[in-house]
């Protein structure tokens, strides 16, 4: 796999399994994420297993859009990942959370890979209001990880 377009790392004073449980629950992830605001399981899915799909609701200021995500990695305490497509089924991105034990806590690395075809960037940027997605997502990841740390450590 190529290098991610945006990534961030944080140390959290909570067990990898506990932090994984927060990240792998799309409802809980929405509580800490910067643009992602909520979800609805689709296709009979009811939980975060490989192959499960969820419709994501996203927002940035007054802008709103939805995506469809398919879980690709669901290894508790180690990795959670999903591929994002647009409503039209076109690829958008891949998001991945990797967990490494560190003492009694863990290191969490959040990464995003751009998947949009070049011609699709203008229409999606118009909808989201983000013209430099790599820079925006670097900031989004930093904010999300900071909130994740706060929530995970508060629930210990």
UniProtKB/TrEMBL annotation:
Annotated Pfam families: Polyketide_cyc2
Coiled coil: none
Protein name, per record: SRPBCC family protein
Organism: Amycolatopsis iheyensis
